[in-house]
Amino acid sequence: MKKLFIKNYGCQMNVHDATRMAQLLHDSLGYATIDAPDEADLIILNTCHIREKAAEKLFSELGRLRKTVVSRDAIFAVGGCVGQAEGDNVFKRAPFVRLVFGPQNYHRLPEMLDRLEKQGGRVGDYQESVDTKFDALPAILTPGVIASVVVQEGCDRFCTYCVVPFTRGREWSRPVEAICEEVTALVAGGAKEIHLLGQNVNAYRALARDGITHDLALLIRRVALIPGVARIRFVTSHPADMNDDLVEIFAEVESLCPYLHLPIQSGSDRILGLMERGHTAAGYLTWIDKLRRALPDIALASDFIVGFPGESEADFLATLDLARQVAFDHAYSFIFSARPGTVAAGMGDHVPLPVAQERLARLQEALGASQLAKNLARVGCEESVLVEGISKRDGGELTGRTGHNRTVNFPGTPERIGQIVRVRVTDGLANSLRGQLI
Ligand code: SAH
Ligand code: SF4
Ligand code: F3S
Q1: Backbone dihedral angles phi then psi of residue 275, each to the nearest 5 degrees
Q2: 81 annotated as a binding-site residue
Q3: Which of 114, 198, 231, 396 could form a disulfide with 193 if both were Cys (CB 3.0 to 4.6 A apart)?
Q4: What is the three-class DSSP state of 154?
């Protein structure tokens, strides 16, 4: 049996793609996935292009792996968003790489490998293709407790800093029926929590066979009717594509987790304008208000970028203010990274790195403080926890997630894995909770 090693970078969509690749290569060519690269016959680096140095890291990782992998015939492949964006450059910089492909092409992996075997040499397949990918992919037969379903892919928003529209291509929504069939199969395979994925999932729109146009809210209502779906989440949402229906479902759909990841990026309207986000800070806060009115204890998560070209101390303070005002349950924050081909990369007035670093530290302190306060506020509460597995830190403990997306570790035995259990929270830490089974 041939052995496959996949190393993954980037977002949940990339993680999902890797699962699909592994299933495809297993079903069509008999590849078994292994956890260490040494014995691999095929090594795939499923890359991310979102921030700088991705390419640099890729080439050093390739060099390192080349020394580790035992078989001289092993095939090195680069997939994902760097594959899409850098294409031929990968072959130039790392001539031993024999296969490069993008996120819209990986369903053709068996053909690519066949071509490599017959013709030798190299194969590059990163032309953005028509969206036949999902029809060509086999179903995931043994999903985890949490399983992802792509409902929408690509992005037409072209925020001025972002490469995703160039790597994932245009916005495209999958048919309602295909999504429901996939969810039904995942649940039959043991999945309890379904994540509906999209680069801009709020842009979901598809005409169903019943003649009704489904937006994301309607799709969620439909998925919630599928027996066995205990929990639903969706990621990632764009504030300019929010609507009142998407607020209402949080109060109405019981299986929808009380959690929303709604990236804001900056609290300054001037910077939001330069980013072409299509909304203001006040507009964002209106959605936060509406969400909290519909569901007072909804958990809110966000993304921030500091050091965008031209960001002044006053702009940054507006961001810090907004972060404090909302008091997010969780947030990611990054220093602006100039990406090839994006509008922002050509903007003048770059913020010096030490200034950006200092702003990031201040923002992260504020975000960390609100996250910790939110975690501490759960102490004494009873939570429903979907048990995902054995805790990595302590083998005698289980780990799972609350509806609010908080990790909880608690003593327990493995037969609980896959169940939703009641846990009393005993401790709130910086990044997780501790608890006791009730
Ligand atoms: N589709 C998602 C975001 C995908 S990228 C959305 O719009 O919400 C995830 C996060 O990476 C973004 O929210 C942003 O905060 C960050 N990011 C994207 N491009 C970046 C860049 N050029 N520099 C720094 N951070 C960036
Ligand atoms: Fe990138 Fe903006 Fe699209 Fe998100 S919405 S993927 S940040 S272009
Ligand atoms: Fe990265 Fe591509 Fe996802 S650039 S964040 S892997 S869409």
Answers
A1: -80, -10
A2: yes
A3: 231
A4: coil
CATH number of 288-377: 3.30.750.200
Tell me the CA–centroid distance for residue 162 and ligand 2, in Å: 6
Q: Tell me the pLDDT of the chain averaged across its residues.
A: 95
**CA 101 to ligand 1 centroid distance, Å:** 22
How many Å apart are CA 241 and CA 201, to the nearest integer?
9
pTM of the full structure: 0.96
Indicate whether residue 159 lines ligand 2 (CB < 6 A). yes
Q: Do domains 139-257 and 382-437 have the same CATH topology?
A: no
Query: Residue 240, class by beta-carbon neighbours within 10 Å (0-12 exposed, 13-18 middle, 19+ buried)?
Result: middle
Q: Span 139-257: which CATH code?
A: 3.30.750.210
257 known member of a binding site: no
- What confidence tens digit (pLDDT) does each residue in 394-405 have? 778 999 999 999
**Which residue matches tokens 């080349």?**
66
Fold observed for domain 382-437 = OB fold (Dihydrolipoamide Acetyltransferase, E2P) (2.40.50)
C-beta of 263 in contact with ligand 1 (< 6 A): yes
- The CATH number corresponding to 3-129 among 3.40.50.261, 1.10.10.10, 3.40.50.12160, 3.40.1390.10 equals 3.40.50.12160
Give distance in angstroms: CA of 330 to centre of ligand 2.
19
> How many CA within 13 A on the CB side of residue 429?
9
50 CA: nearest ligand 1 atom: 19
pLDDT tier at 52, thresholds 50, 70, 90: confident
